[in-house]
């Protein structure tokens, strides 16, 4: 998920909160590999620079005090192409996530948790979603949901005990999604839009992404949202006492899906199989899936499908595409390993080598993490070397 603010390199962009035209302002533009079915693009946030000093962006964005009951502020941030104007609010308090106390969730906002988490260098995360009143999620294709215009998704990151940022994605009536990150101020009472991102934000090793970085992952899915899907929500509530938390079961019960599926979905096989394929699904599948350009280039598919879950693990499209399968080499550097997953051999498994080796052009994932996930490293090792 990502945070919401699209930017234009000139002051003639639509005012904050205005519906965009879908593509291209700033450096983001239309998404390669986007789904024509949803008409989706993600408006770029512009800019390659970094917010000054990694501190509060209030001065840079000019968003200092416009949240108290007034209309969302139009804000500006310096960029290499000139001022950047956000099409969505400058302040997190204006996005509809919280009430006036910036603690209590606003009406219509629901927490949720994915079954399998995206690794973010150990950051703790919270997630929320809101749907427009009276709307439903189009689940005709159970593996790739299509969201109604006005859908908002937020994700909060806390690193080393410091709440650093909250990202927002919001779908527009055009089918485009706007996205931006908000960096929390030192007093933790407000967060400011930082379209250009922040390196080592708030005194932590956590990098707030710029808009182009957000697009790299979100562009690979037909309707851009990650982590809010059938398989990811097919679990019991994380907080059984919560009346607000949304899972697949509560979405079906509340009539919020156009084609409600039978419940539940579980990944078959051993606990090791579940954890391994779940990790690939959440950390790799959002790019390596049949709808994305990463799949077009290599044919590598790491996205679990609901239909596959009815059969054995060996019948998964993901399993068949990686187990003892030769690598598809492109005209680029690559690890010296002949198989995607070589049974019993870490040295010959290119997916493992790409995962554990950082700072190469062929390292995976290509952004969003600087630290190898130690639990996932062991997971790869255990699955690859497991007797069969």
Describe the fold and architecture:
- The chain has 388 residues and is an alpha+beta fold.
- It has two domains: 1-261, no CATH class; 271-385, no CATH class.
- It has eight helices and ten strands.
- It has helices at 58-61, 211-218, 248-253, 271-283, 293-298, 317-322, 350-356, 374-385, and strands at 7-8, 42-43, 76-77, 84-86, 110-111, 124-130, 152-159, 162-171, 177-184, 191-193.
- The strands form two sheets. Strands 2, 5, 6, 7, 8, 9 and 10 form a seven-stranded mixed beta sheet that branches. Strands 1-4-3 form a three-stranded antiparallel beta sheet, with no helix packed on it.
- Helix 4 crosses helix 8 (374-385).
- The longest helix has 13 residues, at 271-283.
- The model is unreliable at 1-41 and 44-70 (pLDDT under 50).
Helix-strand layout with pairing:
Elements: E1 7-8, E2 42-43, H1 58-61, E3 76-77, E4 84-86, E5 110-111, E6 124-130, E7 152-159, E8 162-171, E9 177-184, E10 191-193, H2 211-218, H3 248-253, H4 271-283, H5 293-298, H6 317-322, H7 350-356, H8 374-385
Parallel strand pairs: 2-9
Antiparallel strand pairs: 1-4, 3-4, 5-6, 6-7, 7-8, 8-9, 9-10
Helix pairs in contact: 4-8
């Amino acid at each position: 998920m990502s945070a919401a603010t699209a930017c234009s390199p000139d002051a003639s962009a639509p005012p904050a909160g205005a519906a965009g035209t879908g593509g291209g302002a700033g450096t983001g533009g239309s998404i390669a590999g986007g789904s024509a079915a949803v008409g989706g693009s993600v408006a770029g946030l512009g800019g390659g620079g970094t917010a000054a000093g990694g501190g509060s962006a209030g001065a840079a964005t000019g968003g200092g005090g416009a949240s108290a009951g007034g209309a969302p502020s139009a804000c500006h941030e310096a960029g290499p192409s000139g001022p950047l104007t956000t099409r969505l609010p400058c302040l997190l308090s204006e996005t509809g996530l919280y009430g006036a106390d910036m603690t209590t969730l606003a009406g219509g906002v629901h927490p949720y948790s994915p079954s399998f988490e995206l690794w973010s260098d150990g950051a703790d995360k919270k997630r929320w979603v809101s749907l427009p009143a009276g709307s439903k999620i189009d689940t005709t294709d159970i593996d790739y949901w299509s969201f109604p215009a006005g859908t908002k998704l937020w994700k909060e990151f806390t690193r080393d005990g410091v709440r650093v940022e909250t990202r927002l994605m919001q779908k527009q009536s055009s089918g485009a999604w706007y996205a931006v990150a908000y960096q929390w101020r030192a007093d933790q009472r407000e967060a400011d839009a930082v379209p250009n991102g922040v390196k080592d934000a708030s005194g932590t090793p956590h990098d707030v992404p710029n808009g182009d970085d957000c697009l790299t992952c979100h562009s690979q899915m037909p309707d851009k949202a990650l982590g809010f899907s059938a398989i990811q929500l097919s679990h019991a509530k994380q907080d059984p006492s919560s009346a607000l938390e949304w899972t697949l079961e509560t979405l079906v019960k509340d009539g919020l899906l156009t084609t409600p599926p039978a419940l539940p979905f579980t990944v078959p096989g051993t606990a090791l199989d579940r954890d391994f394929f779940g990790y690939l699904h959440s950390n790799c599948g959002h790019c390596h899936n049949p709808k994305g350009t990463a799949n077009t280039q290599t044919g590598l598919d790491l996205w679990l499908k609901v239909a596959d879950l009815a059969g054995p693990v060996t019948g998964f499209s993901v399993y068949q595409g990686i187990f003892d399968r030769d690598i598809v080499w492109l005209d680029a550097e690559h690890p010296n390993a002949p198989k995607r997953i070589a049974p019993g051999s870490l040295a010959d498994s290119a997916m493992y080598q790409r995962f554990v080796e950082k700072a190469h052009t062929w390292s995976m994932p290509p952004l969003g993490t600087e630290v190898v996930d130690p639990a996932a490293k062991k997971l790869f090792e255990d699955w690859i070397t497991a007797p069969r």
